[in-house]
Sequence to fold (155 residues):
Amino acid sequence: MHEPNYSDYSLAELHYCLAHLDSQKYPERLQQLQDEMALRLEQGEALSDPMLNELLAEDVPASLAIRSLWCFAWRIVVASICCLLLIKGCTWINSILHALSPTVLNITLFILGTLFMTIAGTVIMSQVMAKRYRGYRIRIINTSTNPPSNEGHKT
Fold:
């Protein structure tokens, strides 16, 4: 059976393992986990690790969600205004050049606006989330040396 190397785990992963470990079935792993966590705390590793489960609403603090929503909202308004100016500019240029029929122009502008908002929304959301976690230290774990366990978890 695969023996995990807990020195490669972040503190959040150690907490996750401790919460999901069957201590009666694996008492030696429980002791290894507790020893590794004690060592990390002695070394001064922060308890608030950057690894948050952002997919579950109950794991995200309400203040973080509100700040992220506000940050996203004002940026998407600015992006919408830019998109509107782009569309108005294209319409004005087409009215001078008469290059496209009104139907083709409307379809083209709709597609351009949709693409712009999709890309802008993705970029803006990545900036919003990166801003929230800027102060955290991220640990990169080499998973190629750790074979996957049979249970699907690292415990």
Q: What stands out?
A: The first helix runs from residue 11 to 20. Residues 60-132 form one domain. Residues 148 and 154 are 8 Å apart (CA to CA). Confidence is low (pLDDT under 50) at residues 49-56, 135-148.
